[in-house]
Design goal:
245 residues, alpha/beta, TIM Barrel, eight-stranded parallel barrel, two-stranded antiparallel sheet, 12 strands
Length: 245
């Protein structure tokens, strides 16, 4: 299990100075990143610029419509960047008349297609998946229905926010859970740095090791402090718990 960072966390800094911010991220000790856009660069420019800074992208977030409608271009982009995972970070359930069973089918079909191109395809949750559809939550229906090809990128904060147990879901989703978003929850139920809130990190890290979690991806959707300082604090906490870059 290696430490990474979802670059969405530092988007406000990257919008002002894309490459300068990534240089600062590298100087702080980060070596692995999950992409959320390329800052106006093409894939080759991004690959070179990241490599020059000692940063390795292992995963990228993509809109589901792009994943469906721009397959060839996205596959080429992913291979150029050298990522292993293509992940849908959000969907609108209202667009699927068949509910979570239909969503599971669509995502599984995409996963099968991306697997054929030597890419792993996953889904990242928020809290709305934990709303009931009948007598089960959408998240339960999704993973009971989805084929084994679909990878789970579990956002631990949003699982807790949705009223469920992050550690239990890491175990339930083994062996398909390979990436997880590590973010913490303050007493108001808002985002805070990893180790500064109410999530059980000792239990999460133990479970992650047990289920074969590959990536502990630091994220904070809306940092209350400087975004770079936020991810640095989270990384320092994870290093203190024995994780490595």
């Amino acid at each position: 299990m290696k430490i990474s960072v979802q670059l969405y966390t530092i988007r406000s800094l990257m919008e002002q100075d894309f490459w300068g911010t990534l240089t600062r991220l590298s100087d702080a000790g980060f070596r692995n990143v999950e992409l959320a856009g390329l800052g106006g660069n093409d894939a080759e420019e991004a690959r070179v610029g990241l490599a020059e800074r000692g940063l390795k992208p292992h995963s990228m977030h993509v809109d589901i419509n792009r994943a469906k409608n721009e397959l060839d271009a996205l596959v080429q982009e992913a291979h150029t960047l050298g990522v292993d995972y293509v992940v849908v970070p959000w969907i609108d359930p209202k667009q699927f008349a068949g509910g979570w069973k239909e969503i599971a089918g669509v995502l599984t079909d995409l996963a099968k297609t991306y697997n054929e191109h030597d890419l792993k395809f996953g889904y990242h949750n928020h809290a709305f998946e934990f709303e009931k559809e009948g007598d089960k939550t959408g998240f339960e229906i999704l993973w009971e229905t989805a084929g084994p090809e679909l990878i789970a990128e579990v956002d631990l904060f949003w699982v807790k926010k949705g009223g469920d147990d992050p550690i239990a879901w890491l175990h339930k989703l083994a062996p398909r859970v390979k990436e997880a978003h590590f973010k913490d929850m303050d007493p108001k139920g808002e985002f805070t740095e990893v180790g500064q809130g109410s999530l059980d990190w000792d239990g999460i890290i133990k479970a992650g090791k047990e289920v074969g979690l590959e990536w502990a991806i630091i994220e904070n959707d809306s940092p209350k402090i400087d975004p770079l300082e936020s991810v640095i604090k989270s990384r320092e906490f994870l290093l203190s718990k024995g994780l490595k870059d």
